[in-house]
């Protein structure tokens, strides 16, 4: 199962549309996960129409029209993996421990808000499987990051594999890059 993970798209406030590379990834994905800050209901409708399956939550910049259509926290089980999707997770300090305690039912927690790509795991008391935390960054609003970004991943045999950060071109760069994003 192929996944595309997005957050903080801010369309049309930060970009007119998603980059072509992102739309191509959406077209190839089995599931698209969006962790909030859409800004426009039009993008929600467009992504819903183009995705085979969309799992999404709203963010702090999303108005009542978006909040009426998607939840603040989305939950889904995909091939045995329990996903929780939220926008804001609070300060980076203590994030892993705080979220493992707040979401003991999750195997993978996808979040946004910071626009900073994030990929960590944290142990959970009494559970042999750590919680995986993923933030895809933003494909349209890089803020202080060197590139706009999104994530892809694969689920095979109830295991999340091939988590890859895709760096999109900036105004001064014309080629995408891929780099590991491990943070501790």
| Strand order, sheet with most strands | 3-2-1-9-10-11
- Tally of domains: 1
N- and C-termini, Cα separation: 27 Å
- Give the CATH class: Alpha Beta
Order of helices and strands: EHEHEHEEHEEEEEE
CATH architecture: 4-Layer Sandwich
CATH fold category name: Purple Acid Phosphatase, chain A, domain 2
Under CATH, the homologous superfamily reads Metallo-dependent phosphatases
* Uncertain segments: 172-180
Structural class, from helix and strand content?
Answer: alpha/beta
Number of helices: 4
Share of helix, binned = 10-25%
Question: Which geometry do the CA atoms define?
Answer: globular
Major beta sheet, specifics?
6 strands, mixed
Radius of gyration: 15 Å
Number of strands: 11
Taking all residues together, what is the mean pLDDT? 90
Beta content: 25-35%
Short structural description:
With 184 residues, this protein is of the alpha/beta class. 17% of the residues lie in helices and 34% in strands. The strands form two sheets. Strands 3-2-1-9-10-11 form a six-stranded mixed β-sheet, covered by helices on one side.
